[in-house]
Amino acid sequence: MWASKRPGPPAGGPQKKLIIKGLKALPTLPLSYKTDTLERLRSAVHAIQQNQPTTQGLEELYRDCEGLCLHKFASDVYEMLQTELEKYTRQQLLQIDRSPDTHAPAAILDQTRKFWDDYTQQLTMVRCVFLYLDRTYALQTTNVASLWAMGLSVVRQHLVETNMRSRLVRLFINEVTSERNGQLIDRPSLASIARMFIDLGLYAQSLQPSFIDATRDYYRSESLRMINYLVPIKQSAGVSAEARSSGPTDVPGYLNHVQRRLDEETQRVAQYLKPSTKSTLLATVLAELVEKHTEKLLGPNFDAMVDADMVSDLTNLYSLLLPVNKLDLLQQNWISYIKKTGLRMMQASDLEATLISGLLAFKRKLDNILSIAFQNNARLIGALREAFEMFINTRRSKPAQLIARHIDQCMRMGSKLAADDDIDDIFDRIIMLFRFIQGKDLFEAYYRRDLAKRLLYNKTLSTDTERLVLQKLKAECGAGYTNRLEGMLHDMELSLELSSEFAQKQPESAMNDIGFQGSVLTMAFWPTYEPMELVLPRQAEEAQNAFTELYAEKHKGRNLQWQHNLGTCLINVEFNEGSKELQLSHLQGTVMLMFAEQNELTYSQIQQSTGLENNELQRTLQSLACGKFRVLTKEPKGRDVDTSDTFHFNAKFKCPQARVKISQIATKEIEKESKELEAHIHLDRMYRVDAALVRIMKARKTLEHSDLVTELLKQLDFNVSTTEIKERVDTLFERDYVRRDDSNPSTYHYIA
């Protein structure tokens, strides 16, 4: 490590003094210094512009520029440099501008590109030589641009003052048009021209507006040419994309063409346009190709695409309508299509056989389109719900009845549903339809009737599946809606326990003679059944009495009312070909057991022994003697049963099955039962209307008729006509709940 010390005075010697005197005369520059130095710099600029080596080194040239600036000649240097750049720019651009367009339009753009590339490189070199000027004079002097900005302004000024700017823009647009028409062009030249306009500050004010206008004109002409020759979708089915592009096309082909054009314009921006141009350019293309022709793209063409489930084409349609704010028209066509198709389904001749399966398939298709093509747009989802609610309720009670029947078919043992793995999904889709119907109280009545038959006749798929459906209904409508349905399942569980206890308490001999199982139904939960008088066989009557005694012991004060028309039985019968197990109703079983003692009985004898009324007895005998499985024969032969007929046991009965189920003959009782059920629901609804009217009037005291109707419809969850409302209001007048205003009959007052 080195250390330094200040030297002291010489030891023992005299000290010397340093005296500095001013110059007698100031130094002066040579008379030709400025001229010679400027000439050397000018020559260097010429050499750079001609791509030749300079006679002096760059460092020496830099020192010359620095010297001139230090001696207050900076403005002269700046002026000389600006003049030389102007001369060179004018010379080069005028030479390019003299070339005619007719011979080689692209050559002019290529020459301009070459000039611009060379010029910017030369300007960079010039700036290096004159860097001191740029960092002192140009930076510190007001209204004096930097050397780079000055060099660009020279080119900009020439382009603006001459016609060359407009010419370059026109040639640029012509090249793009050629590319749009399928020709190959020199994209690097266009990219360089675009960069030149951007650097010169002319892109936004000259190139882009003209380019957008030309784009608008081009696509306006193209869209009119294609739209006016659109062909129906069904006529172009199976036509290839190449064939579509070479001649008249359909809407899907047109949408694919628009997407292809958008992709081309996006690539064009990426390769030789300013990125900020993209939004305006694509908006212009969409405005001409899509926005102005939206109505022609929709309508029947939209219906045909949805009918054919053309999801990819609908995806194109949605993606093109979304940015031009035309989803309102799409929504209108979406609602219109769903309503028209739905109303057609509701008016079909085979309504009962195909409606629900058709609606489920229709809803699944629409959901798939919503999910994939329309990206689960909330407005279109709401439109679907609105359209479904409109058309599905045009038949009032029918959809509720058919949905309940469809669930019943799915829930029955042996249905196709048993082999389906995704049971939850199937019922979710059914509940979606249930969500649209307004008569949910009517659905509950039909569902309860069908559920009762499944449970009583042991035809349900499984109790777990039943509970699954009830859980979904509860989630939709609340616990009160499914209270009675859940009570029915609970009754069956308790009945199984009670029957098991009954079997354990019976003597073994009695159990071997007859197997008895009773189901105790709570009247408040189950449908209403009319009691039927029936004289049971001795063993059945004894078992029934024993079960009644057991129930009375367990539940004091409760009475059982036996519904024989709901019971079923299994009877082993010996025929000539062997023993068969007959699955019968209580009525059929009672009649068959009479033939265990006698082979021949008259109608009167059977009626006297069973105590059945004529209608029920005739239906029962007809099922046994005139149906598919004739275990009885009758005289005289025929399809109808008369009170004078005689019946014989058919020992020659043959059937390959070991167990034979003989169903009761269907009559108009089922239709009558449905009408009675609907009448009961209608009456219940009128009670609810009365309660709502009283509730509203009690809260509002005085109300106009129109306001009362509006408020009432808000509170009800089912349809009610104005005539029915008027009738219910009249009943309130009669019962002194409300009165009319003396001066205005349409105004009502609540009577406390």
Please summarize what this structure is:
By secondary structure, this protein is mainly alpha-helical.
Characterize the structure shown.
This protein has 752 residues and is mainly alpha-helical. Helix content is 62%, strand content 5%. A three-stranded mixed β-sheet has the order 1-2-6. Strand 8 and strand 9 form a beta hairpin.
- What best-fitting shape do the alpha-carbon axes yield? elongated
Rg from Cα: 49 Å
State which percent range the strand residues make up: 5-15%
Mean pLDDT: 87
Helix content: 55-70%
Structural class: mainly alpha
N-to-C CA distance: 115 Å
**Any low-confidence stretches, pLDDT <50, length ≥5?**
1-5, 235-239, 241-246
Secondary-structure topology with pairs:
Elements: H1 33-49, H2 58-70, H3 74-97, H4 105-129, H5 131-135, H6 137-140, H7 147-161, H8 164-180, H9 187-199, H10 203-227, H11 241-246, H12 251-272, H13 277-289, H14 294-297, H15 300-307, H16 311-321, H17 327-346, H18 351-372, H19 378-392, H20 398-411, H21 423-436, H22 440-456, H23 463-477, H24 483-505, H25 508-513, H26 538-554, E1 568-575, E2 578-585, H27 586-594, E3 600-602, H28 603-610, H29 614-625, E4 632-635, E5 646-649, E6 659-661, H30 669-700, E7 702-704, H31 705-715, H32 722-734, E8 738-740, E9 747-750
Parallel strand pairs: 2-6
Antiparallel strand pairs: 1-2, 3-5, 4-5, 7-9, 8-9
